[in-house]
Design a protein that fits this description.
- This protein is α/β, with parallel strands linked by helices.
- The strands form 8 sheets. Strands 6, 7, 10, 11, 12, 13 and 24 form a 7-stranded mixed beta sheet that branches. The protein has a 5-stranded mixed beta sheet with strand order 1-2-5-3-4, sandwiched between helices. A 5-stranded parallel beta sheet has the order 15-22-16-17-18, covered by helices on one side.
- The chain is globular, with a radius of gyration of 24 Å.
- The model has no long low-confidence stretch (mean pLDDT about 90).
- This is Sulfide:quinone oxidoreductase.
- One of its GO terms (biological process) is sulfide oxidation, using sulfide:quinone oxidoreductase.
- Keywords: FAD, Flavoprotein, Oxidoreductase, Quinone, Transit peptide.
């Protein structure tokens, strides 16, 4: 067999974690006749789309069905649909999602009126899944009870990205006896700041990857599951599969959702037809492939409405591409168009002179208020909604030979519908202490909270010790002791070998880490490039994620801070 982790459930159904196109011939040879995908497109940075899977499956004579379920959001109606689909398909059938949990949950709920809860529990346990929470939901009339927990911890951290692992390490370094758990279903952890460099031909994609298990701090439990819901009044988190975790304190840092599907036609053409993005692990190498192969034509770079992670990344791709074409002597034959949904090139004015100089160097045309809404890869055409102030919205068509797309970004679905969210869907925190405004035993950091700072890994590096200090103080019965000043950093790769090192806090206040004589962040610098290329990756892997707070010591809370 292949590397597919098949879990037989019944004679007709098996479930598995995410499969790839390369697995389909093996599944065909194993006798499978149909596939059900329960994972929405765009959920992970290394995930093939359903269309890719379906096309390959159909070429092998396999039937394929798409029943996408947001992690932790399995409804009774979804289960009914799954049961009907399973009944209608020829067997054996493979259903898959990220880990297989959604698929086995759908099956369990679909059998509620066919099998006893004891039979459901025994069948799913034999397949390697604990559906005790689902059985309780069935017995409780469709709602997961939170009066008792499957497990409890002093501190539960939702999300094992840069923010989650860093804050776990910072907590354990301060209070080693603290009982901490991290909840995250992903097997792989990515150094996402490196993907711009992959797209520019500087880093190898494989060097931006580690297994999640190798990074979870020693003494911290890893719960490999997705969150379905928060019940903060009961100090409970409900997981995929309806399991319940209780907590003393909760830290929420799940990152952002990249909404690829919000742009019509995009998912169908990503990774082909000249359509790429450095915001996906498997596509960043394609960016570099396109850049190397281009000698003439039009290259389009897009930027969606804010907020997005690393607001400078859309133009970083432009600069590194333009620099390559400049060095090869083909820039004169390439029309670079930057389509920016906003009205400024960069939000902090001190850095604009240097950036505008590079826009001129690469003869790039900047089009403000242009938001990508649709794309047709095979015809090499894209459509933008143009929303200039005091002007009616118009739709314009732009042809391209290459297009680098940055998708719209939101808080994850399970955050936006939760009691933790503000009206706009972001986790509602005090911007100084990062404590939730309503629930005193909940904190947030990273990209999903609503403090008005840049959403960067550098911001999370500073936030993690602050949250750790304040959580430990709260456990000791004290008031918050540390505050966040909104620090974020955006190393703008304006050419190979030079960077404009933008560092700023709330309100665009300049917050440089180095004396101006060492690195003047407003000017392109070779030393800043060295920092990005050689120093920051080990700082990330060996410092930030290990709880070594290099240049990140918490600032004491001013008594006047709210």
């Amino acid at each position: 067999m292949s590397d597919v982790d098949l879990k037989p459930v019944t004679a007709k159904l098996s479930v598995s974690p995410q499969i790839g196109v390369e697995d389909l011939p093996v599944l065909k040879d194993a006798g499978f006749r149909a596939i059900i995908c329960n994972r929405p497109d765009g959920e992970g940075p290394d995930q093939p789309t359903f269309d890719e899977i379906a096309s390959a499956a159909q070429s092998l004579g396999l039937e394929a069905r798409y029943l996408p379920i947001v992690a932790g959001k399995v409804s009774d109606e979804d289960a009914i649909d799954f049961g009907r689909t399973l009944d209608a398909l020829p067997g054996p059938v493979l259903a898959y999602c990220r880990t297989g949990t959604r698929s086995i949950t759908l099956w369990s709920l679909s059998q509620a009126d066919r099998l006893s809860v004891a039979d459901i529990l025994a069948t799913t346990q034999a397949a390697g899944y604990d559906m005790g929470g689902v059985v309780r939901r069935i017995a409780n009339g469709g709602r997961t009870p939170t009066d008792r927990a499957d497990v409890s911890y002093d501190v539960v951290i939702v999300g094992a990205g840069a923010a989650g692992i860093a804050v776990a390490s910072s907590l354990k370094s301060r209070k080693p006896d603290l009982d901490v758990a991290i909840v995250d279903p992903a097997d792989i952890h990515y150094y996402q700041p490196g993907w711009t460099m992959v797209g520019g031909g500087i880093f190898d994609a494989k060097d931006t990857v580690r297994t999640m298990g190798s990074l979870i701090p020693k003494g911290v439990a890893w719960i490999k599951a997705a969150v379905a819901a928060f019940e903060p009044k009961d100090n409970a988190v409900i997981l995929d599969g309806c399991r319940v975790i209780k907590y003393g304190r909760l830290i929420v840092c799940p990152g952002l959702k990249l909404d690829w599907n919000k742009i019509e036609g995009l998912v169908d053409t990503l990774g082909k037809n000249g359509v790429t993005s450095n915001y996906r692990y498997d596509l960043a190498p394609y960016t570099w492939q396109l850049v190397q192969g281009m000698t003439k034509g039009r290259a389009v770079f897009t930027q969606p409405p804010m907020p997005i992670k690393c607001a400078g990344a859309p133009q970083k791709a432009l600069y590194l591409s333009g620099d390559h074409w400049f060095r090869r002597g083909v820039l004169k034959d390439i029309d670079i168009q930057f389509m920016n949904a906003g009205g400024v090139l960069f939000g902090v004015k001190d850095y604009l002179p240097a950036l505008e100089e590079y826009i001129r160097k690469y003869s790039a045309t900047v089009n403000f208020f242009h938001n990508l809404v649709a794309i047709d890869g095979p015809s090499r055409k894209a459509w933008f909604a143009v929303s200039k102030p005091d002007t009616a919205v118009e739709k314009v068509e732009v042809e391209f030979d290459m297009i680098h797309v940055v998708p719209p970004q939101t808080a994850p679905d399970f955050i936006r519908v939760s009691p933790l969210a503000d009206a706009a869907g972001w986790i509602d925190v005090d911007q100084a202490t990062l404590r939730h405004k309503t629930y005193d035993n909940i904190w947030s950091l990273g990209d999903a909270m609503n403090a008005p700072n840049a959403k960067t890994a550098a911001a999370a590096r500073i936030q993690a010790p602050i949250v750790a200090e304040n959580v430990v103080a709260d456990i000791a019965g004290k008031a918050p002791v540390a505050q966040y000043n909104g620090y974020g950093s955006c190393p703008l790769t304006v050419e190979r070998g030079k960077i404009v090192l933008a560092e700023f806090g709330y309100g665009g206040t300049m917050l440089p880490s180095f004396p101006k004589a060492v690195i003047d962040g407003t000017k392109p610098s070779r030393l800043a490039w060295l920092l990005k290329e050689k120093i920051l990756p080990p700082v990330y892997w060996q410092g930030m994620l290990k709880g070594r707070e290099w240049m990140a010591k918490p600032t004491p809370l001013r008594t006047s801070a709210k």
